[in-house]
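User: Could you check the structure of this?
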Amino acid sequence: MASVAGKTAFITGGARGVGAEVARQLHARGANLVVTDLDEEPLAALAEELGGARVRTELVDVRDLSAMEDAAARAVERFGGIDIVVANAGIASYGSVLQVDPAAFRTLMDVNVTGVFHTVRATLPAVLDRRGYVLIVSSLAAYAAAPGLAAYNASKAAVEQFANALRLEVAHRGVAVGSAHMSWIDTPMVQDSKADLSTFGEMVSKLPYPLSTTTSVEACGRAFAVGIEGRKRQINCPRWVGALRLLKPLLSTPLGEAPLLRFVPDLLPRMDAQVAALGRSLGTRTGALSQRAAEELSEEPR
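Assistant: Sure, the predicted structure tokens are below.
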């Protein structure tokens, strides 16, 4: 297993949750960090927590390719190159296909899918120079769908295939590509969803074991760090998620869907009613940050 000491990691969505914990884990292992996010306050707090010359933060929107290219250029200028990329920035939306706000759906796809492309496009020249490693953060959702999360499911399936295609393109140039797949992690995103919608927590609890279990952010961060050191093709957290990859063809059959179909007729209308009452399809913090960034982007001269 290779050491990350002295190497430079570029992490998107790194202010909170899994991204911040991966930053902590890699920093503790001696890596230089470039951490990007839209959330200024926790990003600054993370920089203060880690401190020192090995950490640079960037307030940047993954939906803006030019801004991502500038951030990558500053990372190379500061640390001499980029060895590791963790395309982690991602959001979730609320509601069924009939209920979700179409604007929220587009925002989610822009962040979760286009943002991954922008991250890789901006950093890949530097990673190629270092024969480095790219980790695309997908999800268990790429293997198994859940009602009320169609947009999120679609985005995570898309970036898994993006990672698979990228691997084929860059393997002969010495770059390794992995995808990360997690079940429910106790992140701010999951916490906010449960706080906004009681039916979200109810849905999670009704899933078959172990799909109904939640893993700590710390455990997920450790799994990512170990996988990054090993330049793994897949990182699964918890480990049993890897078995679902093998069972993926079964999960979309009538047999695999049966446990979910038992509760959807009752739960999904109540979830949609809660989303309608909430008046939004994104978390409060996510929606505000995305809207502000979109307005700033539209105001910039082109």
